[in-house]
Amino acid sequence: MAAPSLLPLLLALTSLLLPAISASSSSTYFPCSFPAIFNFGDSNSDTGGMSAAFSTVSEPNGETFFGAPSGRPCDGRLVIDFIGAAYKDLLPPEEYFAKALYTFDIGQNDLTSGYVSNMTTEQVKGTIPIILDKFTDAIESVYGLGGRYFWIHNTGPVGCLPYILARYPLREPEVDPIGCEAPFNEVAQLFNAKLKETIVQLRKTFPCAMFTYVDVYTVKYWLISQAERLGFERPFVACCGHGGKYNFDARYGCGATETVNNTKIIISNTCADPSKRICWDGYHYTEAANKWVFDRIVNGAFSDPQIPVAMACRR
Fold first, then answer.
1. Which UniProt keyword terms apply here (predicted)?
2. What are 171-181's pLDDT values in tens digits?
3. Which of 42, 176, 249, 281 is catalytic?
């Protein structure tokens, strides 16, 4: 059985140059003056690496904030964009490496790739130690280069995403009370539990480093389960897609076109108001959902230890 690859983790390396990240005035500490953020993650936090290396992200991606495709598989900004005070596509000077904040957002691709390879749920669970061994190797490499401050997101409720719901339809009792597919979420929760254990061990291995574990799973599940009360609608339907119950068809991604009478037309277009939707293209969240998630995690309420991102260098 082939081990899942963490290559997207390296391809999504993003540098964000920061003057500083501010914290609330109620804190007893001065905020950390991170001169840069380096992000490692899958396409949920990719600000352009995959698009630059492989296939270009096309319209209508980027329409909400940038007004044009920006390399992000989203209508606008990602959680990492909100974490960073500003985004610039310049590699920071080498001396920033030891002072930077290193953010990780992994798991979704690594877990779901097993299902794409026709693994059973038990087989996918069996890959989790392999994934986390590779994650540990990545942390050790970054530490060896001087990295000391790590802000690590767990993976979200993949069983609530339109591409899972459309591709792997399940029946009760495997569907939970809000409509998500329970076996997929159980795998995500197992991954998260093992990730947290791994971080506990990393703290022992690297006592000079600071590791913050962020429970984005709980925040995203909260958003999806309470969508209408929170001002969103149709949480299981992609905003940008093509057909079906979930407005998702793997053959026609967001922005897909078709030629009719020698004229190219977009057949996977956007919904009327992305700001009211949670899922952008079946795989990724909208800017509005990303902002909502950021607003819940930035102050440390869902972190272990419970410190805001601006204090992620403090013990």
1. Glycoprotein, Signal
2. 889 999 999 99
3. 281
